[in-house]
Amino acid sequence: MTDFQTFIDSTRTQVAVEPIVLDQPVRLEDLPTPALIIDLDAMERNLDKMQQHLASAGMVLRAHTKMHKSPIIARMQIERGAVGVCAAKVSEAEVMMRGGVSNILITSPIVTDDKISRLMKLASHSEEISIVVDHIAAADRLNQAASEAGINLKVFIDLDPGLGRTGIETGEPALQLGKHIVSHCQSLQFGGLQMYIGNCMHIKGYEARRDKYRSLIEAGIETRRMFEEAGIPVPVFTGGGTGTFDIEPDIGALTELQAGSYAFMDVEYRDVGGQRGEVFDDFETSLYVLVTAISQPQSRMITMDGGFKSFASDSVQPEIRDVEGVVYYFGGDEHGMVRLNNPSRVIQIGDKLQVITPHCDPTVNLHDYYYPHRNGLVSEIWPVSARGKSQ
Amino acid sequence: MTDFQTFIDSTRTQVAVEPIVLDQPVRLEDLPTPALIIDLDAMERNLDKMQQHLASAGMVLRAHTKMHKSPIIARMQIERGAVGVCAAKVSEAEVMMRGGVSNILITSPIVTDDKISRLMKLASHSEEISIVVDHIAAADRLNQAASEAGINLKVFIDLDPGLGRTGIETGEPALQLGKHIVSHCQSLQFGGLQMYIGNCMHIKGYEARRDKYRSLIEAGIETRRMFEEAGIPVPVFTGGGTGTFDIEPDIGALTELQAGSYAFMDVEYRDVGGQRGEVFDDFETSLYVLVTAISQPQSRMITMDGGFKSFASDSVQPEIRDVEGVVYYFGGDEHGMVRLNNPSRVIQIGDKLQVITPHCDPTVNLHDYYYPHRNGLVSEIWPVSARGKSQ
Q1: Which of A194, A243, B31, B40 is deepest in the core (most CB within 10 A)?
Q2: Percent of all residues in chain B with a pLDDT value above 90, rounded to a whole number
Q3: At A126, is the pLDDT very low, low, confident or very high (cuts 50, 70, 90)?
Q4: Where are the beta strands (DSSP E) in A278-376?
Q5: Which of B237, B253, B242 is nearest to B132 (CA)?
Q6: Which of A332, A347, A23, A303 is nearest to B359 (CA)?
Q7: CA-to-CA distance for B247 and B253, rounded, in angstroms?
Q8: Which of A203, A116, A196 is nearest to A157 (CA)?
Q9: Burial class (CB in 10 A: 0-12, 13-18, 19+), A300
Q10: Is A181 helix (H, G, I), strand (E, B) or coil?
Q11: What is residue A238's three-state secondary structure?
């Protein structure tokens, strides 16, 4: 017999957040597949490169943990200079805090009592917890809860970039919300603006992406100007992502970049193109799913042990690493089928192959463990600690 | 410092397989969303109906646990008369056995040492563990391993229905494999044939589905005849699913039905049509994801807190229950956006809505817990025990 609150608390406290250190390294080829593997050297180069890029551009990184779901990786980002992290949901933030990360912005609004109560618990443990708000009633409820909890809660106003997903309309409506927070919400502290232009991240071609982004962020810049003219300083303007990492500095709007995917990369991002051409190769692919060839009913096909339950299926197809002339496509929940058009090497039953993930965020969210390796040797196993924490 | 094998063992032994019993029931509207909820009365009617249907048709049920991932539900199916269960993968079977289910057929071939070793451990604990095999080399390896473990392992020959995913070619190739098992594999016991015609399950329209299925299963029936003529009895012919539950009995090929989705149903299955018309309503929808309306930047849209991480995205769109004139579509990893075309009731921020899952199997696999309820009251919480067990 368990109290419901005790159960809810257990969903946070029972989560593993530390590396499982192996007494002897394991080779990639000995992992049970499908296995989510990280090329650690490549990932660390990505982390370093983004940090240096933003530092030289006068911006800071607020790494989005909805992508990697791992306090271990979050700590690596913070050690390199990230100011803190983003979490998409309260339960994700709970796991990050449990894993030693205390500066967390929750990037999606919450409106129900249970989530507000969980947020207040987080905020009572760290002054660096903040959340977005996108309408006056929600601000009032957060203010009331913060007041009751004796907390001063930092909030960011979420601006709708025209996507209609979350956020308040830019310009006058946003300013009214800002004035309301500053003058009527004694227990809220206005932290700044958030504008995440999600529909820009995957526009193909650097110039097209830059031009579209520039036209949309304009309303955010104007909103910031209105705030400042009204005497409301905007210390932080947060947003953007991997797809705009080299667009932001030229525009000079954002102070914080909310990038996540740059650490791992995926087929979808690789194919949007970069400043240097059709391949977005500023960051290296460091995440793969290792699969095994298990059956070959027909000579021009071979079947792998990973399908919809091992790869995200919301976007493009997975792609096999370092083999040309083959196409991986989904063979249902449990299988992938590889068409052997003109394979650059023989693939046989029992072979293990590394596959680039179509979309890293929802792929990571399918797996319980990362197997990070250097040169094919796995010395630690990292829990995907916030996997499933969508609440 | 952990031994790798100790880690692998922990992925089985640390899994929760029993209900979490609450000391006081919780109302659906108090659950943290997104939450995977089961209408228990509807699910139990589905379980009863399938059992009665198969019993009257002279068939048995071997429920597929790749759908629900829950030994609790597997036990409910077995209590009603199911002969046992299917598991797609070894790690899934491990969880089922840990949850008290001992009769398990693994429906996908395995070919690597680590998986074979794990299978032998399972088989050493239960004589009712079986697995499919689809080529001679794999049969030899299983035989060798079973011999070394002092086990008599039951195997089913997996027949390729022409899909090219797994299985051996019907007819002579399958018969050769059968003869090889019977005469050269002393530690294997031939259990029968498996033929899962996955590409038939979602053909729209009962007649079209029936006709296509009938033409494809013919090669399996002929293969069985060849086995019997060669003096190899085929005690069990296993396959089929929810989409062919009322087609099998008329054909009389299969002895066992491997249905899974019938317990929950989903948008995809509902829309394939049934004997009674365009809606496949022989089984009731009993699974929903409860989501909360959290933002409304534009008057004709409202945003929910569930996206690609809460619903499978491999097939159709989620659908809101009991509200007409609205369309749910994905708004990224974390959100769903509902277009309010002509809503049959008002939907406001803070409202919780039940959403029918697009495809139940990979949706279940995203969630850590089921919240089963009767009339809106949740008295127990069930872990999705084999979630992520795709190895």
Answers
A1: A194
A2: 98
A3: very high
A4: 287-295, 301-304, 319-320, 326-330, 336-340, 352-356, 369-373
A5: B237
A6: A332
A7: 10
A8: A196
A9: exposed
A10: helix
A11: strand
Task: Indicate whether B1 pLDDT > 90.
Answer: no
Residue type, A308: F
Provide mean pLDDT across the span B95-123: 98
- Cα–Cα distance for residue pair B148/A312, rounded to 1 Å: 39
Structure tokens at B362: 């990979």
Residues facing B172 on adjacent strands: none
What are the backbone dihedrals phi and psi of residue B151, each rounded to the nearest 5 degrees, phi first?
A: -120, 150
Mind listing the pLDDT tens digit for each residue in A36-83?
999 999 999 999 999 999 999 999 999 999 999 999 999 999 999 999
Alpha carbons B36 and B182: distance in angstroms, whole number? 46
Q: Which residue of A has its CA nearest to B89?
A: A334
Q: What integer is the mean pLDDT of A271-289? A: 96
In angstroms, the CA A16 to CA B130 distance is: 33
Contacts of A387 in chain B (CB under 8 A): 388
**Residue A87 CB neighbours (<10 A):** 29
What ipTM did this prediction achieve? 0.97
Nearest partner of A308 among B90, B366, B336, judged by Cα:
B366
Q: What is the mean pLDDT of residues A164-171?
A: 97
Q: What is the pTM of this model?
A: 0.97
B14 inside 8 A of chain A by CB: no
Give the pLDDT of residue B177.
Answer: 98
Average pLDDT over residues B78-100: 98
d(CA A116, nearest CA chain B) in Å: 11
pLDDT in tens, A21-37: 999 999 999 999 999 99
For an interface test with A, the pick among B333, B352, B384, B389 (most A C-beta atoms closer than 10 Å) comes out as B333
Chain B's closest residue to A163, CA to CA, is B297
pLDDT tens figures, B202-251 = 999 999 999 999 999 999 999 999 999 999 999 999 999 999 999 999 99
Task: Determine, for residues B313 and A309 on separate chains, whether the beta-carbon distance falls below 8 Å.
Answer: no
Alpha helices in chain A (DSSP H): 4-13, 40-57, 65-68, 71-79, 90-98, 113-125, 136-149, 172-184, 206-229, 248-251, 267-270, 360-364
Report the gap between the CA of A56 and the closest CA in chain B (Å).
Answer: 31
Supply the pLDDT for residue B333.
97
CA distance B131 to B86: 9
**pLDDT mean across residues, chain A:** 97
Residue A199 in this model has a pLDDT that exceeds 90: no
Cis ω before B34 (30° cut-off from 0): yes
Q: Which tokens hold the place of B43?
A: 């699910």
pLDDT tens per residue across span B153-167: 999 999 999 999 999
Cis? peptide before A34, omega within 30° of 0: yes
Residue from the list B295, B312, B337 with its beta carbon closest to the beta carbon of A308: B312
Alpha-carbon distance A32 to A37, whole Å?
11
End-to-end CA distance of chain B: 23
Whole-angstrom Cα distance, residue A130 to residue A154? 5
| Rounded-to-integer distance, Cα B265 and Cα B284, Å | 7
Confidence of residue A1 (pLDDT cuts 50, 70, 90): confident
Residue A164, both tokens: 């209609």
CA contacts within 13 A on the Cβ side of B94: 24
The full set of domains in chain A, from first to last, is 4-37+281-383 (2.40.37.20), 40-264 (3.20.20.10)
pLDDT tops 90 at residue B375:
yes
Distance of CA A209 to the CA centre of its chain: 20
- Residue B301, phi then psi, degrees to nearest 5: -135, 150
Residue B111 to residue A182: CA distance in whole angstroms: 64
